[in-house]
Amino acid sequence: MCLRLFCILLAAVSGAQGWGYYGCDEELVGPLYYRSLGASSYYGLFTAPRFARLHGISGWSPRTGDPNPWLQIDLMKKHRIRAVATQGSFNSWDWVTRYMLLYGDRVDSWTPFYQQGHNATFFGNVNESAVVRHDLHYHFTARYIRIVPLAWNPRGKIGLRLGLYGCPYKSDVLYFDGDDAISYRFPRGVSQSLWDVFAFSFKTEEKDGLLLHAEGAQGDYVTLELQGAHLLLHMSLGSSPIQPRPGHTTVSAGGVLNDQHWHYVRVDRYGRQANLTLDGYVQRFILNGDFERLNLDNEMFIGGLVGAQKNLAYRHNFRGCMENVIFNRVNIADLAVRRHSRITFEGKVAFRCLDPVPHPVNFGGPHNFLQVPGFPRRGRLAVSFRFRTWDLTGLLLYSSPSPKPSPSPWPWLPGPKPTPDPGGVQI
């Protein structure tokens, strides 16, 4: 009975948030201009990508001998996708029996969609006329969709007409460079709740970083962070000297989450029962302790901390993009974009996703170095880099936190030596 009530309340919360996506079932390919449909190649004039629409007069077929055929759809802006449907080419023996679905925000970075059971293959058609639709077990957001045929009718060739179902998606993005953070102040100064929903999407190339943190005076807290490219959720509903059971709970999910692809995270809680969802895969668990309400004080931190917190040791700030940060019906990212008075900024948070571009530096001799000045009045420093070398020994990095320049840390090197910059970094 309790589990049934939990599921009903979570469904009600999701519906109230607009996350049930009711009515999000528009056919998206039909209204597009022909230039939004592309392909690796096409067989002839009447099998061009522009004809790859459901119930069209033809269909798309690649040229004979195309080693890696694909059909690509540009939705022109980000959409939420909930279903895919296929047909074979009209009045022919050409249809696809199995295919892969790829999606992304750029045409050079793709994510395969995995069905339940970690299967990336969709079953297609058995004839040229019937529409085969797959309702996805979780909805994803993307601008670009690519269909990769894997098998087709042996009596014909690849033939495809495609439909995508979903709706437009409003995206509020925050970019953190590892030295930024925002805080959201609760409307009444505190947040006391029996149920909660936390949801957002993120992408990064860093293995570690603090995504979200909030805490209360009675030992309540919630933390979402990356450690070793895994997602960790830490939560406690509080503690008391007269309650012997510890309240701390940690749940881990995913792996290799620093792949620069978007990942969707959602936490649903009702009392001590909770779900952690990562990219459509759900973990259900019971929180430790004896309390059922989450009592949070003053504010919630996104992307890093602003000041010290008693329930959280030092963590690396997040470096990457976060999208549509939702807490109990409030879109914190939207408030930040509109610079609402409840939002406090630490550093320079950008409102568009900036993909990092690597700039390799070559040190050709023992006296070459790069000196990076320090930031005044900053109490922390985090540096990461990749390197390759054929030298057996050598100094990679040095920083002097002293307010006075310290002696050279490399007295054994002949010739001129760099003078350490207090708070700066020598590489």
Walk me through the structure.
This protein is mainly β and 427 residues long. It folds into 3 domains: 18-168, Jelly Rolls (Sandwich); 173-346, Jelly Rolls, CATH 2.60.120; 359-427, no CATH class. 5% of the residues lie in helices and 41% in strands. The protein has helices at residues 2-17, 332-337, and strands at residues 26-27, 37-39, 71-87, 96-106, 109-112, 121-123, 132-152, 161-168, 173-177, 181-193, 195-203, 209-215, 220-227, 230-237, 249-253, 263-270, 273-278, 281-286, 294-302, 319-327, 330-331, 343-346, 371-372, 398-399, 425-426. A hairpin with a 2-residue loop joins strand 20 and strand 21 (330-331). This is Contactin associated protein 1. Residues 402-421 have a biased composition (Pro residues). Pfam families: F5_F8_type_C, Laminin_G_2. Its main location: membrane.
Number of helices: 2
Q: Give the overall shape.
A: globular
Look at the structure and give the mean pLDDT. 86
Structural class: mainly beta
